[in-house]
Amino acid sequence: MKTSIVFPALALACSLGLAATPAQAEEPYRFQVLRLAEIPSVEAEPDVEWKAENYDGQGNANPLPDAERSRPAMDWSGLPRPRMTNEKGNPVVLRSRDRQYPGDHQANQWLRYLQSDDASPIAMACGPEKGERGVDTYLLEASRPEGPRYTVLEAWLDGKTCKGLALRRYQTTVKPLAGGLAYAYRTSCARCSAVESATLHVVMPTAFSSSATGGFRYWTYLMQHLELPLGPGTSGSLHAHFEAASIRAWNHVVPKPLPVVNVAELRIETSFAVGEDEPTIVLAIRGLNIPLS
Which of 28, 148, 232, 242 ranks highest by number of CB atoms within 10 Å? Predict the structure, then answer.
């Protein structure tokens, strides 16, 4: 019985020319050590500790922590709406947090698009049908003439009035990695624990598969933001596979088009051992003609 199964399978393989085809070796990784001073740095605060299933006296979910209610009041009602485009533009991710489960990626509402200007994306979260909720926006200007930069804004927003509280915000230059396949910066947090005192942030196109030790700030079908630890005594790793469709879409973002390949693979390893002066950051890339820098 075993022979009648194996022999026909071998015969079919030979007839298709599969049995005689030697296995092809995978393309080797190309490595690059990144110096810490090369990666832009910005001061950040600890993450907002959103409350899940927290209700006010009226039975409404109220996830904003009391400690955040003294944040600066902001009025975004006069901001112009961004100009959306299907051509070359700046990628945006906008998250509207679910009031009952604000930390649940699946429960939150996501808006992702390209815009042709640098207008604040928060105007897209305002409208007569919008209520109060947490909103965070992310704008990558990879093709900015003065150099690429990234803008982060997290807010408590009343969408009807387009007013609220600015909870977290910063803007930073970013370093292109692998010819623009990813962009990196780092944050320092004086109020965080030693382990969380420094973080490497990597912004990149959507990947077929991706993972990172520090996790995801967000993942969407346009852009994703991953984090790796840089604090003393930490180590981390990032691994992402990009298919041709993702690279083709990302070429609407980067200043110079990347070679479109079926699979490009990006790895980043971080470590900060006892006795070292600063973290070690190693980048590895595998993908036909994808440059290291």
Answer: 242
- At residue 27, φ and ψ (nearest 5 deg) are -60, 135
Q: How far apart are CA 50 and CA 278, in angstroms?
A: 32
Residue type, 177: L
- Among candidates 120, 123, 125, which has minimal Cα distance to 138? 120
Is the per-residue pLDDT at 23 higher than 70? Answer: no
Residues 152 and 168: their CA atoms lie apart, in Å, by: 8
The alpha-helical segments, DSSP class H, found in the chain are: 2-15, 244-250
**Cα–Cα distances in angstroms (integers) from residue 217 to residues 137, 182, 262, 269, in the given order:** 11, 15, 26, 18
Q: Do 263 and 241 form a contact (C-beta atoms < 8 A)?
A: yes
Dihedral of alpha carbons 33, 39, 45, 47, sign = negative
**Least confident segment among 2-11, 148-157, 159-168:** 2-11
